[in-house]
Design brief:
This protein is α+β, with helices and mostly antiparallel strands and 98 residues long. Helices cover 31% and strands 12% of the residues.
């Protein structure tokens, strides 16, 4: 089983996470100028409910700043999309999966 450590992702964990950031909130907090396509991609996959049962959905937490994905495949896809941007002024964003 892939632990996720070799690809920079955080494996599933059980910690208290707070918040329900919209895509607009994510962009404002991260300072990442998402393209229209990436904004649409993120909006299609984001869900309000933190309990994710769909491998193609994700939830964006505020504290800590975490994008929690329904599968490792989606987490890798999200991380790959973010790598195309200049992240030098961006706060740390954790990416996890279940």
């Amino acid at each position: 089983m892939d632990s996720g450590f070799d690809n920079g992702l955080i494996p599933p964990f059980n910690h208290c996470m707070l918040g329900n950031l919209s895509v607009e909130d994510f962009v404002a907090r991260s300072k990442i100028p998402l393209s229209e396509n990436d904004t649409a991609w993120l909006k299609e996959r984001r869900q309000n409910i933190a309990d994710i049962n769909d491998p193609q959905k994700l939830h964006i937490f505020d504290i800590p700043f975490v994008v929690h994905c329904g599968s490792i495949e989606l987490a890798k896809e999200f991380a790959d999309k973010m790598r195309q941007y200049d992240l030098s002024g961006c706060p740390e964003i954790q990416v996890s999966y279940s």
